[in-house]
Amino acid sequence: MKSFKAITAIVLTILMVTTLFSACGNKTARQVNVKAVGSAGFPLKVTDAGGTEMTIEKEPKKIVSLTLGTDEMLAGMIDLSRIASVTPFALDKSVSNVADEVKNVPNVFLSKDAEKIITLQPDLMFVDSWADSNFIKQMRDAGIVVYVFKTPSSIDEQKETVLEIAHVVGADSKGKELVAWMDEKLKTVEDKLKNLKEEDKLIMLDYSETGTTSGIGTNTDDIFKRAGVINAAAKAGLEGWPQINKESVVEWNPDLIMLPSWYYDKNVTLEGLKDMLKNDKSLASVKAIVNGKFITIPFQHMSSISQYVVLAVEDLAKAVYPDLFK
After folding, report:
1. What is the pLDDT of residues 313-325, one digit of tens each?
2. How many C-alpha atoms does 112 have within 13 Å on its Cβ side?
3. The overall pTM is greater than 0.70
4. Residue 227, pLDDT above cutoff 70
5. What is the pLDDT confidence band of residue 264, given thresholds at 50, 70 and 90?
6. Is residue 210 within 8 Å of residue 263, measured between CB atoms?
7. What's the average model confidence in pLDDT over 250-259?
8. Cβ count within 10 A of residue 198
């Protein structure tokens, strides 16, 4: 077992990186008001998720993205020459869906690069609702237009976010195309699962390297539902990302356990986590462990806060019900 300090350090790292990925969400109601006031769409008056009203005077040509989610959304809807900076995660193929597309973007910034961002003087910056308020104020005081978007916590909210970001950058038609692509992917999976009876759906536990899971109100729960899988934690009424104990795993007795394919703690590996669970005598009766039923989904799909989240639904449904996709 890891020490309390070690686990705490990993959890803090997860929270920090997840914020940058925009890989988690909250249940706050979306309060976004976007209104075009010019004949060609600009100037654009908008109110972001933080309640700040702003005017984007003209089509932004120098955009800084400080989340992996907006890195991926922007790469799919505007000319790359308009993206002045992405996050370093966008260049990492193990977590990014657009590493090849954005490899020539001229800058790679995080919020810690405040002085460099100010020197660049972008005409638009995207941050998520987890961003530090002091950083946002610093950027706005420097004359930078900062748009805060709410991190989505479901695929329907993700569609709204794609349309929202597209509108802010003057790419409504591309935003609609991306949502249409998402709907097509989801419809394909839905058609494959249409004859799957409720009593035949398998129960799956999402299990992280720190022993947390994903419950009600998370993207993971929505992905599970759309892939025809019953989320063990949600079935038990848990919300968010709670820590779970071994007694709960035994009680829930899942048919499958989903493990991450990418790890924040580089000392942890997929095979190592599997072995830990398989060798734990207190879990010896759990169906998933008895039958060796461990599922892994590409992290860049499962953690995505962009249009690519629908690929996780497809991945999971195929992995759990392969016969339905033959």
Report:
1. 999 999 999 999 9
2. 4
3. yes
4. yes
5. confident
6. no
7. 98
8. 7
Amino acid type, 56:
I
Residues 270-293 pLDDT 10s: 999 999 999 999 999 999 999 999
Q: Which of 99, 96, 130, 179 is nearest to 24 (CA)?
A: 130
Closest CA to 265 of 44, 4, 23, 17: 17
The helix/strand/coil state of 33 is: strand
Class of CATH domain 195-325: alpha beta
3-state secondary structure of 174: helix
Distance, in Å, from the CA atom of 76 to the CA atom of 173, rounded to the nearest integer, reads: 12
Residue 274 half-sphere exposure toward CB, CA atoms < 13 A: 16
pLDDT of residue 321: 98
CATH of 17-184, one of 3.40.190.10, 2.30.29.80, 3.40.50.1980, 2.60.120.260: 3.40.50.1980
Q: Can you tell me the mean pLDDT for 216-233?
A: 98
Choose among 220, 277, 203, 201: nearest CA to 246. Answer: 277
Angle at 93 between CA 157 and CA 19, to 5 degrees: 45
First to last CA, the chain: 42
Q: Measure the CA–CA gap between 53 and 299, rounded to whole angstroms.
A: 35
Is pLDDT at 223 greater than 70 in this prediction? yes
Domain ranges of the chain: 17-184, 195-325
**Considering only CA atoms, which of 164, 204, 160 is closest in space to residue 183?**
160
